[in-house]
Design a protein that fits this description.
Elements lengths: L2 E8 L2 H13 L7 E5 L17 H26 L12 H27 L19 E8 H13 L4 E7 L5 H26 L39 E2 L2 E2 L8 H14 L1 H4 L23 H4 L3 H10 L13 H12 L4
Length: 342
């Protein structure tokens, strides 16, 4: 049997409460009676039991689900696949607190949002029963009753000081076509996401975004690793070595070269070899064997080309200095090493 909707508009709360009590007496259950008002009205004033609100329990369920996900991620996964890194505990407490809070809040919000839609039976299609005068201050009592009781509800409202009574007619049935269209649109959107998203994930489709040069392949000042020159390339100033021999002419040992050589020696060499070149630099005690005494006969017996090669390519624990000193600066250092004779 089809149910009918009857809407009564009342100006006073007491009149609406009396009408609701009369509807209850003629056998219409409370779940078939709805009250509409522009301002909240307590159920007690209308003689009704407070409506049970399941949204709070749903929010609690969402919080528990989020908490369970956090515990699974932060405790379960590390226990199943333990990985100790950098001396840190298997389950670090400070970051775990933050992640637990975030997941708990996300579970609460998502389940509350879905519960709100479910409890209100969204989406609803069709035009709902309403009267603009409810917004202006009247109280609307909407009753869903069978055909036999609908007439009695109309008479009850008219005798109960209702400002207006509207018999809307049979309750509209669910529009299956509207639901089908809505589900089809949702399905198409989800399908497009599932098809298009992998194209971006696997770089099939690339959209260039400005990065303010943050992602460029560059090396900061005094940073590394430096990109090596191509094989068999020749520097602008010409080859430095040919057949493992210096391919440049020595710089004359004039006062300017010696002055430059002393400054460069103090910067690059004195920490190990000492300011006087005697092998007693500040770091000499950390090396075994100790750095060479550059003033001694073994080193001074070397040719200028041999000293230049050692400075360029290194020797033993001594690192190469070809990245620190250009060709002329290395010859300046050679001239200063010659000046360190005892």
């Amino acid at each position: 049997m089809a149910n009918y909707l009857v809407l009564g508009l009342f100006e006073e709360v007491s009149s609406a409460a009396a009408a609701i009590e009369g509807v209850r007496r003629i056998g219409v259950p409370d779940n078939r009676v709805s009250v509409m008002s522009g301002t909240p009205i307590r159920s007690k004033l209308l003689g009704r039991r407070p409506a049970r609100n399941w949204l709070g329990l749903m929010s609690l369920l969402g919080a528990l689900l989020g908490l369970g996900a956090a515990v699974t991620l932060l405790v379960g996964a590390p226990l199943l696949y333990p990985m100790y890194q950098g001396g840190q505990p298997l389950i670090p407490i400070p970051p775990s607190i933050i992640i637990t809070f975030e997941l708990t809040m996300m579970g609460t919000m998502w389940v509350t949002f879905g519960g709100f839609w479910l409890l209100n039976r969204f989406p609803r299609f069709g035009r709902p029963v309403y009267d603009p005068r409810i917004t202006a201050g009247m109280i609307g009592v909407l009753v869903e009753a069978d055909e036999g009781r609908a007439g009695r509800v109309v008479d009850l409202f008219k005798n109960g000081n209702a400002a207006d009574v509207q018999r809307v007619g049979a309750r509209p049935q669910i529009d299956n076509r509207a639901w089908g269209r809505w589900l089809a649109v949702v399905g198409v959107l989800l399908g497009l996401v599932l098809i298009i998203a992998p194209l971006f994930v696997y770089d099939v489709i690339r959209i260039p975004f400005g990065t303010q040069m943050d992602d460029q392949a560059s090396v900061p000042y005094d940073g590394g690793p430096r990109l090596a020159a191509p094989a068999n390339s020749v520097p602008i100033q010409g080859p430095v070595f040919v057949s493992d021999q210096p391919a440049t002419q020595p710089v004359p040992a004039n006062p300017n070269s010696l002055q430059r050589g002393q400054v460069l020696f103090d910067i690059n060499c004195a920490l190990c070899h000492g300011p006087k070149g005697d092998g007693n630099g500040r770091l000499s005690g950390f090396f075994t064997p100790k750095p060479f005494d550059l003033t001694g006969a073994p080193v001074q017996a070397l040719s200028d080309q041999q000293i230049f090669t050692v400075i360029s390519n290194g020797f033993g624990v001594m690192p190469p200095l070809h990245e620190n000193l250009d060709v002329e600066q290395r010859w300046d250092v050679v001239n200063w090493v010659r000046n360190l004779k005892k």
